[in-house]
Amino acid sequence: MEYTYNNRELSWLSFNERVLQEAQDRSVPLLSRLQFLGIVSNNQDEFFKVRIANLIRLTRTGRQGSRQLLGGYTPADLLAEVSRQAERAQARFAETYRGLLREMEAEGIFVVDETGLTPHQQEFCRTYFASVVSPRLVPLMLRKSVRIPFLPDGNAYLGVRMDCTGGTSVRYAVIQVPVSSACPRFVVLPSEPGRRDVIFLDDIIRLMIDEIFFMFSYDTISAHTFKIMRDAELTIDDDVSKSLFERIAEGVESRRYGSPIRLIYDRDMPADLLDMLARKLKLSNPGMLAPGDRYHLM
Fold first, then answer.
1. CATH number for the domain that contains residue 81
2. Strand pairing class (186-188; 156-163)
């Protein structure tokens, strides 16, 4: 008897699509739909860090594996198909997010950026930046001849580009968006009666970007969000001198330091800044670079 084998990776993408459908369902409460979007994003991150990282390793080593186990695909073909489907899922995710923003506005909740602040809100953001955000910022300058410091995954970053007129001098930097319980990603702003304004922490940093890099001379400066995913496959060595618990603990710890396998970036990021990040992270395959929206929620 012959059995039809459904590829695990493609089946998983279909499952996450089903979760996304819950976020699109208008019969589901608005807050729950936002939570479903968060679940979709977290699922996608873990999928790439484990399953896709394994496919990348198989492709790099030239090991073909069993076509039967991969549903008739070679590792390279499966990686290409997963990348195509993930790109389409990214577009649907962004469309769903924008739709939820419109529904939030109908309920009096507005997500504003640094260009849409009132003078009072600007002053609030400057004070908040000085007291809460600035002490947690550690800007990293990028230089072509210097290795990039280790950037943990699971964080949002801002890639910064500073240049003089005519491009005679260009500087690059990276800022980790310092999200924590004391410094949340979303900040509630002083608002007019009948509405609630919220701003991303990213945009407070953008508002104050000139103050962060005051020591440099430049004509224009821009900051674009990106997110890194690292190989997080759990590997347990066979050292019999260690207990199973010790080996598992070491394997879990090593997941934090895997090689970069994907870079999601703001599609408006300048090409030279994207190229600098890709080279520093050693992401040579274009399939490892995924354009996204301004805030990279997925």
1. 1.20.58.310
2. unpaired
